[in-house]
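Quick one, tokens below:
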């Protein structure tokens, strides 16, 4: 189940249809919706193998959130997504942040920053196997992250030529990670400011594998 909406700047409709095509190529039956009320249908939500939110910012009601929360935590239904569509969604709902594993707080330099996404070679995983480090020109997400996340790829801050209050605190910032939330698998990729970023070879493959890894009853 893909549910899209929120801030238009992240091209949620384009990303939703790109993900739909990607998932159908792996044999999934896919429902695409542009209303959060779809999540309020508890029986439908709990019948899924994978939930894919693409909904930057906005607000989610308890009636819409509770079925997702229970499906992931208690039934082991997977949740997977990218960029602000999953980890800058519903800023007032801290349980959403707990479930999804991080929250966007900044992108120093805004769009157009040239930076590297580096695979964590000390933490081999089927999602990143064989994928090289690669360059991106986009927003470089600075996140507040769950220390329990399993970080698979990272970017380094600060980036040359990009100023800001973070520059005195060099760090590796997780960009691709997995985690467990109760019985459910969670996958996140910080890339995806615009759909074309996700359509590139390595981000696309990370999303494909991440969806397979997270989906209940599928695995990778």
């Amino acid at each position: 189940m893909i549910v899209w909406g929120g801030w238009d700047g992240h091209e949620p409709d384009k990303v939703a249809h790109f993900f739909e095509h990607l998932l159908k190529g792996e044999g999934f039956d896919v429902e695409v919706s542009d209303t959060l009320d779809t999540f309020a249908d508890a029986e439908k939500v709990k019948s899924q193998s994978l939930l894919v939110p693409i909904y930057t910012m906005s607000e989610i009601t308890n009636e819409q959130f509770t079925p997702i929360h229970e499906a992931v935590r208690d039934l082991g239904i997977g949740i997977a997504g990218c960029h602000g569509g999953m980890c800058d969604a519903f800023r007032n709902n801290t349980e959403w942040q707990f479930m999804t594993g991080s929250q966007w707080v900044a992108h120093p330099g805004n769009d157009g920053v040239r930076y590297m996404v580096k695979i964590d070679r000390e933490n081999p995983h089927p999602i990143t196997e064989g994928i090289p480090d690669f360059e991106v020109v986009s927003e470089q997400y600075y996140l507040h992250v769950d220390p329990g996340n399993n970080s698979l790829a990272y970017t380094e801050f600060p980036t040359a030529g990009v100023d800001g209050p973070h520059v005195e605190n060099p760090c590796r910032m997780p960009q691709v990670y997995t985690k467990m939330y109760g019985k459910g698998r969670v996958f996140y990729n910080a890339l995806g400011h615009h759909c074309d970023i996700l359509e590139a070879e390595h981000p696309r493959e990370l999303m494909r594998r991440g969806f397979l890894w997270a989906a209940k009853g599928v695995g990778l």
